[in-house]
């Protein structure tokens, strides 16, 4: 395989992993830090009324689609009432009913919401309204409406501009004809000011005359600055041109949904309706708090795409998740082993033995773990030297060493327990098979290459295990690798590139520095020196 093929493969793996990481970070909103928090809003609808009779039924409109936001959780608090949530073609609602209402009644609906990364107008096509029946206006209001619509048509180019110009005519600069229509269709009585909801409903009727589908939408204006308080209910106008929907403010003709606005529902029904003569009051309050960003991201995914959760590590039982939080750190230690052996040049016993010892250090801490490691290996090495005199074969010798290692570990634990040294009890976490193989390899190196080489490789093993432990015990790295396992593909790509490296190691440069210092420098020939001729004898 050519180097170009290898480089292209490594680059492709790196690019795919980077794209997955950026998507999970920016779109799915997975946190980069374990202690990161996210702002969570709690919107509460409070219904209060004094019943005129014992049997009562009330209907409250609920959030539906909510572009720019995601409803994570809903709670209903209505003691003594039956709760019937329903979903209709144009929205959602809940009906509360009771046969024994006495005294002041309080009903609550609470929704926990967080911001969504979906564009705020992404869900507007799903809210496309049907064309309502055009109203029948009596004279002179019918003539005034026709004249107003003709004037608006001349100053517009499409459906959104037509609706915005109509709003401007009615809300910002009403002429005599527009004022006549507002006084008739946008006032609850002659003495009251123009009502926003009635004006918005009248805009829907005027657009229906021009065969433009539109509907009224209720929205909540959340308090600014993340403070707790009362949310103000506003009416908005949603128009559709057959391709896309446009949300317009009926007060100033502005387009688009602001960030501090929660679109509550788009149903033509009133927000709250009662079947009796009682006049219930509806109040909206908003509070916020900070929640764990990881839990909120997981809950957001369950609402948006449950299949993603089902096919991820987040769907595993908690015990299995804790296991994988540790297992996913093993490649980190292995990559450090690759750097320290192939680039730095530190020699160790075994390839992945230091990584397994580093995992044991996570339970014993570094200083205590190194002490226990030296104690077990040193004691086992003494026994191994004694067994050498018995001239045993390899497999029986390894079995005997393994048995003695287990007995040594048990003895150390018992002694530590008697001395009230809790860390000594953690010696059982060391991988006994790896310890037995380390003792065997260290004794062989001692016999074949001398005590210095054996001790040097043993020290290198401890150094690599200690460095791997320091990296693998970093809480932020553990969180990052568990939430973004795609980072391991970065290490995979880097391992492919380092697999072709065959240059000098840093330890070799340090080892042969004296040889480089004693070597004679090469003196370049001077410009005036004559080139050597055939037959010339070099001077001694």
Q: Would you give an account of this structure?
A:
The chain is elongated, with a radius of gyration of 39 Å. The strands form three sheets. It has a five-stranded antiparallel beta sheet. Strands 4-5-2-12 form a four-stranded antiparallel beta sheet, with no helix packed on it. Strands 10-9-7-11 form a four-stranded antiparallel beta sheet. It starts with a helix and ends in a 22-residue tail after the last helix. The mean pLDDT is 80. It has helices at residues 3-26, 141-154, 159-172, 176-185, 196-209, 293-304, 306-310, 318-327, 330-344, 353-364, 366-388, 394-418, 432-449, 451-472, 475-483, 487-498, 506-511, 513-518; strands at 37-49, 56-62, 69-77, 82-88, 91-98, 105-115, 214-221, 229-230, 232-240, 245-248, 261-265, 272-274, 281-292. 46% of the residues lie in helices and 18% in strands. By secondary structure, it is of the alpha+beta class.
Structural class: alpha+beta
- Strand percentage, roughly? 15-25%
Major pleated sheet: 5 strands, antiparallel
Give the N-to-C terminal Cα separation: 50 Å
Please list the strands of the largest sheet in the order they lie side by side: 3-6-1-13-8
Question: Helix amount, in percent?
Answer: 40-55%
- Give the overall pLDDT as a whole number: 80
Global outline: elongated
The total count of helices amounts to 18
Question: How big is the Rg?
Answer: 39 Å
Number of strands: 13
Oligomer classification: single chain
Unreliable residue stretches: none
